[in-house]
Amino acid sequence: LTVEPTGENQFYTAQMLGEIAQSGAFDDSVTQQQVRSMAIAGYRASLDFFPHSVSYLADGVTFFSVDLLAYQGAVALGSPMRGYALVQNPDGGQAAVIRTTDYVAPDGGR
What's this model's pTM, rounded to 2 decimal places? Predict the structure, then answer.
């Protein structure tokens, strides 16, 4: 990530961990709760450390924000996502995720 700091890798890792937690396809050395917690931590790290990251479609040009997907993924796994809020676009456009004032990322939001 030092060459191109992006939350895209963090997001997709969290997404896979979430799928593993839900499927039960993990080793006996960990619990479902541990895998679920790792997935939620990954989604949160994507938002905390790589806000406004994007991912690209196969054409390499079309992109989309991973913030909304990270937020939704964590909420689907049961996290209240304290420190973030989902804001609906009043014009019917795509919702956005914003950081609220009651939470500060470990690195101060940098």
Answer: 0.82
